[in-house]
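Why does residue order matter? Because the sequence determines the fold. Keep that principle in mind as you read this record.
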Amino acid sequence: MTDEEILDLYFSRSEAAISETQRLYGRLIRSVARGILRSDEAAEECENDTYLRAWNNIPPTRPQKLRAYLCRIARGLAFDRYDRDHAQKRGSACPLDELEQVLSAAGGAEDSLAERELTELLNGFLASLDRKSRVIFLRRYWFWDDVPEIALRMEMSESAVKTRLSRTMKKLRQKLNENGYV
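Structure:
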Protein backbone atom coordinates (compact mmCIF):
# COMPACT_ATOMS: atom_id res chain seq x y z
CA MET A 1 0.00 0.00 0.00
CA THR A 2 1.31 3.47 -0.88
CA ASP A 3 1.54 6.48 1.41
CA GLU A 4 -1.25 8.18 -0.52
CA GLU A 5 -3.54 5.19 -0.01
CA ILE A 6 -2.72 5.16 3.71
CA LEU A 7 -3.44 8.89 3.94
CA ASP A 8 -6.77 8.29 2.18
CA LEU A 9 -7.57 5.74 4.89
CA TYR A 10 -6.81 8.34 7.56
CA PHE A 11 -9.04 10.86 5.81
CA SER A 12 -11.87 8.33 5.59
CA ARG A 13 -11.27 7.61 9.33
CA SER A 14 -10.67 3.92 8.66
CA GLU A 15 -8.86 2.09 11.46
CA ALA A 16 -7.01 0.19 8.75
CA ALA A 17 -4.85 3.31 8.45
CA ILE A 18 -3.19 2.49 11.77
CA SER A 19 -2.52 -1.14 10.90
CA GLU A 20 -1.14 -0.20 7.47
CA THR A 21 1.04 2.50 9.05
CA GLN A 22 2.32 -0.03 11.56
CA ARG A 23 2.99 -2.60 8.86
CA LEU A 24 4.91 -0.15 6.69
CA TYR A 25 6.64 2.07 9.27
CA GLY A 26 6.45 0.33 12.66
CA ARG A 27 10.08 -0.84 12.71
CA LEU A 28 11.34 2.58 11.64
CA ILE A 29 9.30 4.41 14.30
CA ARG A 30 10.48 2.00 17.01
CA SER A 31 14.07 2.41 15.84
CA VAL A 32 13.89 6.21 16.03
CA ALA A 33 12.37 6.07 19.53
CA ARG A 34 14.75 3.33 20.74
CA GLY A 35 17.75 5.35 19.61
CA ILE A 36 16.70 8.19 21.88
CA LEU A 37 15.17 6.30 24.80
CA ARG A 38 17.45 3.20 24.86
CA SER A 39 14.52 1.06 25.97
CA ASP A 40 12.41 -1.35 23.94
CA GLU A 41 9.42 -0.86 26.24
CA ALA A 42 9.58 2.94 26.06
CA ALA A 43 10.09 2.76 22.28
CA GLU A 44 6.98 0.62 21.93
CA GLU A 45 4.94 3.12 23.96
CA CYS A 46 6.31 5.93 21.83
CA GLU A 47 5.38 4.01 18.68
CA ASN A 48 1.79 3.65 19.89
CA ASP A 49 1.66 7.33 20.83
CA THR A 50 2.92 8.16 17.33
CA TYR A 51 -0.01 6.30 15.79
CA LEU A 52 -2.42 8.12 18.09
CA ARG A 53 -0.89 11.51 17.26
CA ALA A 54 -1.05 10.73 13.53
CA TRP A 55 -4.69 9.63 13.89
CA ASN A 56 -5.56 12.87 15.70
CA ASN A 57 -3.68 15.13 13.25
CA ILE A 58 -4.61 13.50 9.93
CA PRO A 59 -6.96 15.12 8.90
CA PRO A 60 -6.74 18.11 8.67
CA THR A 61 -2.99 17.73 8.05
CA ARG A 62 -2.02 15.90 4.87
CA PRO A 63 1.74 15.35 5.04
CA GLN A 64 3.68 15.33 1.79
CA LYS A 65 5.95 12.56 3.05
CA LEU A 66 4.28 10.23 5.53
CA ARG A 67 7.56 8.58 6.53
CA ALA A 68 9.20 11.88 7.50
CA TYR A 69 6.03 13.05 9.23
CA LEU A 70 5.86 9.91 11.38
CA CYS A 71 9.58 10.09 12.23
CA ARG A 72 9.20 13.71 13.31
CA ILE A 73 6.28 12.79 15.57
CA ALA A 74 8.18 9.83 17.03
CA ARG A 75 11.30 11.93 17.68
CA GLY A 76 9.29 14.66 19.37
CA LEU A 77 7.49 12.16 21.59
CA ALA A 78 10.73 10.36 22.41
CA PHE A 79 12.48 13.63 23.34
CA ASP A 80 9.53 14.60 25.53
CA ARG A 81 9.70 11.25 27.28
CA TYR A 82 13.49 11.48 27.58
CA ASP A 83 13.19 14.93 29.19
CA ARG A 84 10.55 13.64 31.60
CA ASP A 85 12.56 10.55 32.52
CA HIS A 86 15.84 12.44 32.95
CA ALA A 87 14.59 15.65 34.57
CA GLN A 88 16.54 14.89 37.75
CA LYS A 89 19.66 13.67 35.94
CA ARG A 90 20.75 16.87 34.19
CA GLY A 91 24.43 16.05 34.64
CA SER A 92 24.39 13.40 31.94
CA ALA A 93 25.56 14.50 28.52
CA CYS A 94 23.52 13.68 25.46
CA PRO A 95 24.20 14.18 21.75
CA LEU A 96 21.99 17.27 21.66
CA ASP A 97 24.20 18.94 24.24
CA GLU A 98 27.08 18.68 21.77
CA LEU A 99 25.02 20.02 18.88
CA GLU A 100 23.42 22.72 21.02
CA GLN A 101 26.83 24.24 21.75
CA VAL A 102 27.25 24.92 18.05
CA LEU A 103 23.69 25.93 17.26
CA SER A 104 23.22 28.13 20.32
CA ALA A 105 25.79 30.44 18.83
CA ALA A 106 23.40 30.82 15.91
CA GLY A 107 20.94 32.48 18.26
CA GLY A 108 17.30 31.61 18.67
CA ALA A 109 15.29 31.61 15.50
CA GLU A 110 12.72 34.09 16.76
CA ASP A 111 10.49 34.06 13.74
CA SER A 112 9.53 31.49 11.19
CA LEU A 113 11.57 33.21 8.45
CA ALA A 114 14.78 32.97 10.50
CA GLU A 115 13.93 29.37 11.38
CA ARG A 116 13.38 28.50 7.70
CA GLU A 117 16.65 30.19 6.74
CA LEU A 118 18.56 28.26 9.39
CA THR A 119 16.86 25.03 8.30
CA GLU A 120 17.86 25.67 4.67
CA LEU A 121 21.41 26.43 5.78
CA LEU A 122 21.61 23.19 7.77
CA ASN A 123 20.10 21.16 4.91
CA GLY A 124 22.62 22.70 2.51
CA PHE A 125 25.43 21.98 4.94
CA LEU A 126 24.40 18.33 5.25
CA ALA A 127 24.12 18.03 1.46
CA SER A 128 27.66 19.38 1.10
CA LEU A 129 29.12 16.61 3.28
CA ASP A 130 30.44 13.39 1.83
CA ARG A 131 28.07 10.46 2.33
CA LYS A 132 30.03 8.89 5.20
CA SER A 133 30.28 12.14 7.20
CA ARG A 134 26.59 12.86 6.63
CA VAL A 135 25.55 9.39 7.80
CA ILE A 136 27.76 9.63 10.88
CA PHE A 137 26.42 13.10 11.71
CA LEU A 138 22.78 12.00 11.32
CA ARG A 139 23.31 8.74 13.23
CA ARG A 140 24.75 10.77 16.13
CA TYR A 141 22.48 13.81 16.21
CA TRP A 142 19.24 12.54 14.65
CA PHE A 143 19.11 8.92 15.80
CA TRP A 144 21.22 9.48 18.96
CA ASP A 145 23.45 6.51 18.28
CA ASP A 146 26.47 6.17 20.56
CA VAL A 147 29.92 6.46 19.01
CA PRO A 148 30.58 2.70 19.45
CA GLU A 149 27.31 1.90 17.63
CA ILE A 150 28.20 4.24 14.78
CA ALA A 151 31.71 2.78 14.56
CA LEU A 152 30.29 -0.73 14.33
CA ARG A 153 27.68 0.26 11.74
CA MET A 154 30.19 2.19 9.62
CA GLU A 155 32.99 -0.38 10.10
CA MET A 156 35.32 2.28 11.49
CA SER A 157 37.26 2.74 14.70
CA GLU A 158 35.67 4.81 17.44
CA SER A 159 38.48 7.35 17.21
CA ALA A 160 37.85 7.76 13.47
CA VAL A 161 34.16 8.40 14.15
CA LYS A 162 35.01 10.94 16.87
CA THR A 163 37.48 12.67 14.57
CA ARG A 164 34.97 12.87 11.76
CA LEU A 165 32.29 14.23 14.11
CA SER A 166 34.70 16.83 15.46
CA ARG A 167 35.69 17.96 11.98
CA THR A 168 32.05 18.08 10.87
CA MET A 169 31.13 20.24 13.87
CA LYS A 170 34.05 22.55 13.08
CA LYS A 171 32.78 22.89 9.49
CA LEU A 172 29.26 23.57 10.80
CA ARG A 173 30.55 26.33 13.11
CA GLN A 174 32.45 27.81 10.17
CA LYS A 175 29.34 27.68 7.94
CA LEU A 176 27.21 29.35 10.62
CA ASN A 177 29.89 32.01 11.06
CA GLU A 178 30.11 32.68 7.30
CA ASN A 179 26.35 33.19 7.19
CA GLY A 180 26.22 35.58 10.13
CA TYR A 181 24.75 33.21 12.71
CA VAL A 182 27.72 33.41 15.07
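The chain has two domains: 3-85, 95-178.
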